[in-house]
Amino acid sequence: MILRFVILCALFLFIEFYSYQAFRTLIRVRWVLISYQVISFLLLAFIIYSFSQIDRSVGQTRQFMFTTGLMLLIYVPKIVLTLIMFGKDIFRIGASILNYFVYHAPRKEMMPDRRKFVSQIALGLAAVPFLSIIYGILEGKYNFKVIKQTVFFPDLPDAFDGFKITQISDVHSGSFDNPEKINYAIDLINQQESDLILFTGDIVNTHAKEMHPWLETFNRIKEYKYGKFAVLGNHDYGEYVTWPSEKEKDENFHQIKNLYGQIGFKLMLNEHTYIQKGDDKIALIGVENWGVNFKKAGDLNKASENVHQDDFKILMSHDPSHWDAEIKDHPKNFHLTFAGHTHGMQFGIEIPGYFKWSLAQYIYKQWAGLYENLGRYVYVNRGFGFHAYPGRVGIMPEITVIELKKGRNVA
């Protein structure tokens, strides 16, 4: 614990040192540089103090989200500055060695000076994440996008050709602070001409009471001809806080499960049902949360018991690591899996159809959008809400509409 603290302090000092070098190269006014140092120290002290006051019995609070946002706002740009300035110093050291051993330069000319334009470039690049994080907090977290995707299956029952499914995931209602924006998102959901809606977990951050102010809002989600179904996410189990007793934890979990019914969704707990359309049917299977690094309450075999090999199967499983670990190669051949969980880390770069990047991709093989393996698919929703960082940059909140079509994908 002490070693970890020492390493963390050394890292912050390293970042602060190189950030200061960028400013010092450009600004020579002594009182300005002293003011910068004082403000940096006070902000760091505030961040450390705020995080030290986290109450494990309460969980995420507005103060926690504010502090997380502030830390990212300050230190992501400073990390950019550090990488550029440190990289320049590596070059300067290399040049000084060359000057000394090859060109035999005088000692005072051996080390090249820091160039002003390097600091200008560094500060210009650092301004990009700084402004992006501010945008993400003020606007991005409620910049809802409807993403539509068509998926082809050669064995799709004829009656389901053109069948549309809306998906929402990761609501995290305890983070909301703008009823107007959430009502707008509900309107977007209702505008989609879908046959079925699926909710793939995380209705709250931790406590059932977080959803109580939003029950009326989410009850505005219209009825769907073929139903409204949901599964649990990892946050729905209340496992990220310290509870006074196991009884209170269990009661909270019971209340969270009831929340889904209170907004009109049938919660599926390792079970399945059949969706009948005309003379055809598809199996809808819902498992509890199962994640490689999170709670493993899901039981895929139990949920799909008595589902036939040749049934067309749609699966809801909150964590996409489940697809990679158990689902994609399962002998029952689950045709399409709906997942969420990753939020795309709420931070990344995405140019639809061309490019997407996020730190999430270094943790999850499937982290946003549609993925395929031998004709079986998983769709990972980018999330409806937000958690920890009170914003979104590049990876926007998502409402998904998947259309099932009979046939084969054209390469």
What global shape is seen?
Answer: elongated
Task: Please trace the helix and strand order, writing H or E for each element.
Answer: HHHHHEEHEHEHEEEHEHEEEEEE
The second-level CATH architecture of the largest domain is 4-Layer Sandwich
> Major β-sheet, in short?
6 strands, mixed
Structural class computed from helices and strand pairing = alpha/beta
Strand-residue proportion: 15-25%
How many helix segments?
10
Q: Write down the overall mean pLDDT.
A: 92
Strand order of the largest sheet: 1-14-2-3-4-5
The Rg value, from CA coordinates, equals: 26 Å
* Assembly annotation: single chain
Strand segment count: 14
**Helix coverage percent:** 25-40%
Give the class-level CATH name of the largest domain: Alpha Beta
End-to-end Cα distance: 53 Å
CATH superfamily label of the largest domain: Metallo-dependent phosphatases
